[in-house]
Amino acid sequence: MVVISLSGAGMIAEDHPVMVSLSDVRGIERADLAAFRRLARVYEGRRLPTHVETRPEGSCFASADELEQAGYGRRVRGFAVSPMSPLPVAHAWLTIGGWDAIDAVWANFGRTFPADCHYLGIKGWEDEHLLDRLSDAAQRAWRPWAWAGMN
Q1: pTM score > 0.85 for this model?
Q2: In sequence order, what are the residues at sequence separation of 6 or more whose Cβ sits closer than 8 angstroms to the Cβ of residue 103?
Q3: How many angstroms separate the CA atoms of 69 and 145, rounded?
Q4: In sequence order, which ranges of 6-123 are alpha helices (DSSP H)?
Q5: Closest to 54 measured CA to CA, from 96, 110, 98, 123
Q6: Model confidence pLDDT, tens digit, residues 6-65
Q7: What is the DSSP letter of 9?
Q8: Which of 38, 125, 135, 151 could pair with 60 in a Cys bridge, judged by C-beta atoms 3.0 to 4.6 Å apart?
């Protein structure tokens, strides 16, 4: 069961697909994982609004930053899992309503649709150091199996 607080972050269930995968990564500090679980929230993939164009593979962070600055929504950074891989990918997207994942990069893949993905993230810029540590540990652990271009 996933607990969502519409007024802010809620405690994410340990059995959420992203949490399960992150829990299996060697090198992630338990305190960092617990902090992410406490601060993150669930986002649901949605179709792109007609005024937002798809972006190229590998450009999620730059795209989310640019689209936020252009006023299309609020940037979210975290991890996402696609039906194509059990590994959570460090990822960034926009949210307009505070619960939706407006994913201009994965919407361009043609192999997956954002509504079929699982997103956990933290809105804004305040927790970048935590997200950097989690992303670095995950990248070191998955490097031999890296899924190039998925972000």
Answers
A1: no
A2: 45, 48, 60, 80, 91, 93, 94, 114, 117, 119
A3: 33
A4: 17-23, 30-39, 60-69
A5: 110
A6: 334 568 888 888 998 888 887 888 999 999 999 999 999 888 888 888 888 888 999 999
A7: -
A8: 151
